[in-house]
Amino acid sequence: MFQVEQEKDRQVSRKAEGIARMIVRVIAGLNARLNNRVIDVMTALNPSQNLTPGKPERRNEKESDFQTINSEIMETPIKSVYLSLLKRLLIFSLIPGSIATILYFSLPAKFITPTLPFLFIFFIAVTLISAYILIRSSQKKFIKYLNVFLLTTVLKLFLFTAVIITYVLFNKADLIPFTLSFFILYLCYTIFEVVWLVSFSKTGQS
Q: Quick one: DSSP state of residue 56?
């Protein structure tokens, strides 16, 4: 009997690990596609730049080594940009938050992860921190801004991976609700961030 339970636990663990790896691979693939989209926009805004990180294009000595991503960004107070982003993010969060509230009172408890409120806080916090770093770095050389953008993307991917794997391994009973909720919120807030970032890169403010 004890061996049967152990075998069941191992099967559940393998299933949890498999689902976690699948979610991580999907997130990594989407990250790559969205990053390419953002970099394409940056390329269009800065056609004279070589966008290969760490390999800047040589230019005439009379010219500056790199352009800033947008001259208007330098004149835009960081605080006002950040507050505008915060306002938009909170308003945006009302949409998935309202849907989650409706589902919470409509579906059986087993279909809703108890971590859902904390996932909202987590993604809002990650988005705000990431955006703040990018806003600060936008006042530096363009190639530095691009490097910071790629670095924050990689760090977020590692963070998401760690959160998914750690939670799933220790809370196998909540496997499906948690991973599904995490993935949906990841999509929502990543799309929001990409749209904001493209707008920020074009206009110098959000």
A: P
**Residue that has been written with the tokens 């009973």 in this structure:** 173
Residue 75 in contact with residue 127, Cβ under 8 Å? Answer: no
Q: Write out pLDDT tens, residues 57-99.
A: 444 444 444 444 444 444 456 778 888 889 999 999 999 999 9
Token couple for 25: 């691979």
Query: Tokens 């947008």 map to which residue?
Result: 70
For the cut 70, the answer to whether the pLDDT of residue 121 exceeds it is yes
The residue extents of the domains of the chain are 2-51+66-203
Q: Please answer whether residues 116 and 181 qualify as being in contact, where contact means their C-beta atoms are separated by less than 8 angstroms.
A: yes
Provide the whole-model pTM: 0.72
Quick check: 49 and 43 in contact, CB under 8 A? yes
Residues in contact with 169: Cβ distance below 8 Å, sequence separation at least 6, in sequence order: 13, 16, 17, 20
Give the residue among 190, 202, 158 at the shortest CA–CA distance from 33: 190
How far is 117 from 77, CA to CA, in rounded Å?
32
Give, for 196, the enclosing helix (H) or strand (E).
helix 175-203
